[in-house]
Amino acid sequence: MATLPRPTKTIPVSSSASSPQDTNVSLRIESQFDAGINSSTAWTEHLERGSLSDDDPDDDPDISNQKGCPARALYHFEGKVEFRELNVDAGDELDVLKEEVGDGWSLVRNEGGEIGLLPRSYYTFTSDFSAAPTLDIPSFHRKKEASSSSLTPRGSPKGESQSLPIVPQNTGEWRNALPSFRQSLLGGKSLNRFSTFVTSGAEEWVLNGSAAEAEALEAEGSHQRLPSQSSIADDDDNNRLSSLATGEADRHFVDAGPAWQTKVPPFRVLVHSPSKRTSVLSGAYTIYNVTSLFYPSIPEEEDLAEYGYAPPASPTRITVHRRFSHFVVLHTALTKRLPGIALPPLPEKQYAGRFSTDFVEARRGDLERYIGRIVRHPIARYAEVMTSFLGCESDSEWKRLVPQHLALPAAGPSFFARVFHPAFNVDAEDAAETVNRFDGHLRSVGKGVQGLRNIFGRVREARLEMSKAERLLSYSLLSLITSKPLASAPMNGISEEEEGDESDAKVRGPLNSQGAWCWREDCKDCLSLMKAMDKTSETLQSVADLYDDHARRTQLATHESLKSVAHPFAMYEGVIETHRSTLSRYHGAIKEDCANEDVAGRCETVLNTTMAEMETYHAQKLEDFNTVTREHLDGEIAFYEQVLVRLRSARRTFDSPQYDILSKSPRQASRYERELENPNLAPSPLSQPCPHVYDSAPMRPVSVAIQEGVGMILGGTSGRASVFGKFW
Q1: CA 574, CA 341: separation in Å to the nearest integer?
Q2: How far apart are CA 312 and CA 296, in angstroms?
Q3: Among 244, 263, 242, 241, residue whose Cα is nearest residue 252
Q4: Which CATH number describes the domain made up of 32-178?
Q5: Rounded CA gap, 387 and 401, in Å?
Q6: Which of 50, 303, 337, 463 has the most CB atoms around its CB within 10 Å?
Q7: Which tens digits make up the pLDDT trace of 363-392?
Q8: Domain ranges across the chain
Q9: Alpha helix positions (H), 347-394
Q10: In CATH, which of 2.40.10.120, 1.20.1270.60, 1.20.1250.20, 1.10.10.10 is domain 440-489+511-676?
């Protein structure tokens, strides 16, 4: 169906407004204190992030002797000593040794010579200040461009700035200026101060539109689909990358609902077969096989009538080799090119023990869930970078494409300019009611899932206790028929008379000379009974093994998969903020005294985008909870079926003819008799899921966390969770 937006007019951009591509410091020499803060160019700031890869070296042996870039702290920050964070006060002089060490953190040195981590947004480079005519300040050349996120005016003399107190700027749309611990170092939300309405480019689109896009649309025919070879690039760099940046994959359509129109049929992606590799340049790293499964279309009705069933069809497979840093490239490029959709967070970075078997398996599962959610999104799955990531089988070709994808400019308002939808299909009252209900639903689901994850951890612990109980029952039964005491077994209710004289061997030994559980010699019936009870004891041990294995493998996989449905509000918070801010602009644009049809039309485009994202969450929620619940039930059924098979096998030994055959051969000592003196009743702690990026509460018992933390200090690295997860 035709999906055309409301006609819009090109609004000339004011000379005082910053262009999204205007990030060159040399073009803003005369910028004032508020420059870059109130203007909509802020939507590009949060995209200037370094690599999240855990393949980079963590330590530099000569870092303590390195001369850093002079900087000054903007806020008070209390760091965690165990995570090598630095305590600073606003106004402290600092030396920045490494501006980017991952996840928005920098390595800095204070005046006392202490070295530690500090968020990048908590300081500003004093060498970036332009010198006043009357001051003689030596020039300092940095390798990187000056950060546009500085809160200190570039025109301020260094002397004056040191004498004045430093306070956060109060302009622009602020979020929490002091990030939580999980939101920063452990891979949580970025330290960006502005609302998603600004950072996504939605505000710039609503206020000013996209001049280049409007010109291209007008040249091709107003609001018609553009040819895939068309380009709306503004500069030479964009022209050079136009084949990747502005193709058919960058035009998105919204159907009635609103809901995203699907261009590419759904497919499945598996992340499997991790292996350790070594490179001369980057050292050791883990490589994963990423296999895409493309299923053929559903057979026609006449084929179904002929066969009577759907004929089996083998999917088309494409396998590529990717490492974690490649997933970071994918996430970075998607964030830049698709600012209007809710992307899942990457798994948290690992700083130690990243080659342990448990962690590699946990990372594999997290990456599979991450890429699986992306390919289920009707827009993200046909993005150019996604196509390259999943389909480029040549490693050299993929390495050639990586810099091009990373060099693509942030889409910003151009993303919304390329969204096509039916005109006048949004009602303001319905949109306001929808977002309120969506907000409440996400908070409720998030709270419920957190409770479910905690309870599921207790269920796994209960299965471990059940394993211990089954094993104890097996030992007790074996102790009964052999009269060998079970170490540490409770002896409540046994009197001294029943214990007898242990010096008398005849009282102490319940077996006859044939090894049967009887005082009579040559008792065939007792021999059969004893061997059948031996079989029961061994069966109980195998059942205990099943309980233990079920808690450690099957239920751990379910526990891990619950992360895919956890924290939906944190993931869609930006969509909600953008929706509400756009509604506010929309109400202002339709007022009778100051009506602006162009702004109202662009607001409708953003509202179509956010409501299509809500519909996408609805579809994914149905699939996610259906899959998690179904897989849990399948695992429970398979587990209990295995238990039933073993119990029925033990039960058959008490029936003829098996029971009669047992008496024809002497009894052999059970392999579990030697464990009676030292029973295996202290299983190792359960492995816990790696923490979710947005987790802020402990997901494991405190005793286990302390035990694993001590083990880490003593050199152990075999836990499932990351180093930072061990402290929770």
Answers
A1: 9
A2: 10
A3: 263
A4: 2.30.30.40
A5: 11
A6: 337
A7: 999 999 999 999 999 999 999 999 999 999
A8: 32-178, 440-489+511-676, 698-728
A9: 357-375, 384-391
A10: 1.20.1270.60
